[in-house]
Amino acid sequence: MCGIVGYIGHREAYPIIIKGLQRLEYRGYDSAGVMVYNEDGMLVCKTKGKVADLASKCESELNLVGNLGMGHTRWATHGVPNDVNSHPHVSNSGNLSIIHNGIIENYEPLKIELIKRGYTFTSDTDTEVLINLIEDVQKTDNLKLGKAVQVALNQVVGAYAIVVFDVRKPNELVVARLGSPLAIGIGENEYFIASDATPFIEYTSNAIYLEDEEMAIVRLHKPLKIRKIKDDTYVDPYIQELQLNLEQIEKSGYDHFMLKEIYEQPSVIKDTYRGRLLADQGIIRMAGIEDNLEKFLQAPRIIIIACGTSWHAGLVAEYIFEEFVRIPVEVEYASEFRYRNPVINKGDIVIAISQSGETADTLAAIKLAKQKGAFVFGVCNVVGSSISRETDAGAYTHAGPEIGVASTKAFTTQITVLTMIALRLAQAKGTLSKSELQLYLQELSNIPTKVEECLETNEQAKIIAAAMKDAPNCLYLGRGYNFPVALEGALKLKEISYIHAEGYPAAEMKHGPIALIDEHMPVVVIAPKQGHYDKVVSNIQEIKARKGQIIAVVTKGDTQVRELADYVLEVPDTADALSPLLTTIPLQLLSYHIAVMRECNVDQPRNLAKSVTVE
Q1: How do beta strands 349-354 and 375-380 pair?
Q2: Correct CATH for 453-600 of 3.30.310.260, 3.40.50.300, 3.40.605.10, 3.40.50.10490
Q3: What CATH number belongs to 3-102+162-248?
Q4: Which pTM was predicted?
Q5: Active-site positions?
Q6: What pairs with residue 303 in β-bridges?
Q7: Residue 142: partners with Cβ closer than 8 Å, 6 or more residues away
Q8: pLDDT tens digits for 508-566?
Q9: In the chain, N or C terminus with fewer CB closer than 10 Å?
């Protein structure tokens, strides 16, 4: 959510900033802006709309030449999307500028106090309040910029990642974070600042990820200084080598990142279990599990916390853990978990799932769980992310960068990791026989090949998409392991095509949703041969009797459902517990093609952000 890019060095700043903002478009935004400093002072250009609109405006109105600058893509919180509310914001004196991700919750009393002191405001944002607060602290106490930022941040309540510049300090940027990610790329006599590493990956492979409540003074020709905002103690910078390359963040000939990422699933699932799953030898090796095996084996229950697609992966894991490991599992929305008083007992294990590793609600839920004495295990995709640092142990999914806002490969790689954990625990507890365990290990190793077969439904998905694209509503039904897939399929359709869709357990249809079914209602039914097949067939017959339009995901060779359905999408046969890894693929393709046919912005759906880093 929102995107920050900053640069100080020997290169021209503007091209780096614009390209960086384009790389961050996946995070979701509604306006954008840039500031470049040169001998003429701060040159600011900002606009409502896309980064392309910003580039057109800047290049027609200003000569943005200079070696220091910063840019921002804004997702509106305080104040509507418009030119004035866009970042950067400049202080009343014109000396300071700021870009800011996050929310300052106590901005209103701060604003009232600043107005009493003679400050005026042109925007509706909390960010303009923050930059004027920094200026007021700096002026009142005659402080250097870094110290003024520190003092001001100790007066605010909320979340932030900020970059601050003072025209009187032309070789310096001050950055800080609390609850919103911020990375500093380190080059040769140059520094890059961004919400993640994608804006500077072609310039350097070395980066520092600020921790919560840390700030840094970034100066040319001087070593980076990092200190704690609360107590002013200095922190030794930890430089990481980036596990990312430029090719991974390009479209590679695909029309959209989402389609590219759907087609990457065979390879990334294999990457996720590579070195961990040795099916022929009956071995699963996961360092985060092996190092904490006794904690898992002795745990009275597991609590899974997540949001969105990751929550759906957690629901699949609930079925898998309870069947394989015979341990009670609860799956919680992180956003709800953090705001009630959950019962967490000593020995409980909390598994936190997040693609980005920066989800604000999940991070807050992790901190709550740790305070209550739980052991917290993270499942995320981004090396060095906040969740990977905050949890006690964890496992990466190795999905590579996911740029499309609608998660696809995150879902399947998360399920892969969670399945491996369950199988390793079942092996240790003896809750699966050796033959059962070997069957699942072998079948899991075959999943990438079977996902490739699922991708062959692409042309059929296009045909079905043409029939569904004008529907105002849609139902998704599944049972057992495929109930969460129904939820995930409905979410994909909603978020990228803007068609209202709901997922239900198929048996719940008669408890209300059946009232909606008529000849205008498409109903997507997930009906593989494994699992509760006969029950799902009965549900299909009930829909058919009410003239519902049936789109069925079936096992290859199925004839019974094919006779009832209007359209079918075939997937290979597999074990019931692993079927979500296959049945979700044609639903991803279906949603993608519907969105394309409706001329929606597939990779950047309206109002959505890739990583929800503020509440």
Answers
A1: parallel
A2: 3.40.50.10490
A3: 3.60.20.10
A4: 0.78
A5: 2, 610
A6: 330, 350
A7: none
A8: 777 877 777 878 889 999 999 988 888 888 888 888 878 788 999 999 999 999 989 99
A9: C
